[in-house]
Design brief:
The chain is α+β, with helices and mostly antiparallel strands and 158 residues long. The protein is 25% helix and 22% strand. It has a six-stranded mixed β-sheet. The termini are far apart.
Length: 158
């Protein structure tokens, strides 16, 4: 009987690469470059990657919970944005933040260079200051793939 090859799950990095690969070449490049810049900026943060049908979302969090994320990279077919979880509370004298949600605001990101702008840097610094949990001072954050499927409660027996 021939030996069967064990089915291996793709690594988290391979899963994320595959998810990013669904977008056009331009958006793939932007997502990858912004991700690299955020990984450099937050080396000890966990990257929590959420896979949705129409987007890829990566939250940079000091914990393994997305709600604790400091900033979130969201890539969609129509572009890439950087979200701030405490957006309404952040100082934004230049009016860069967009959106009207209760907890978040965002800025469009055309390239990783956008993150180096002093006003964007100030927003990111302010977001770090609003984080409920501090970033670890040492170590390297992990890439954690989260499923987008909502957990369904079992049906009640009648």
């Amino acid at each position: 009987m021939p030996a069967t090859r064990a089915t291996q799950m793709p690594t988290p990095e391979a899963q994320l690469r595959s998810n990013i690969g669904r977008f056009d070449t331009r958006n793939q490049k932007v997502i990858r470059s912004v991700r690299a810049a955020l990984r450099k900026r937050f080396p000890t943060a966990n990257e929590l990657a959420y896979e949705y049908a129409d987007s890829v979302v990566i939250s940079y969090s000091p914990t393994d919970k997305g709600i604790d994320g400091i900033v979130t990279l969201a890539g969609r077919a129509d572009g890439v944005c950087l979200y701030f979880g405490h957006g309404p509370q952040l100082p934004d004298p230049k009016g860069l933040l967009q959106g009207t949600a209760k907890q978040t605001r965002f800025i469009p990101v055309e390239s990783a260079k956008r993150l180096t702008h002093p006003d964007v840097n100030a927003l990111i610094d302010a977001a770090v200051g609003h984080s409920a949990s501090p970033l670890p001072s040492a170590g390297k954050g992990a890439l954690i793939i989260r499923t987008s499927a909502a957990k369904k409660k079992p049906a009640r027996k009648k």
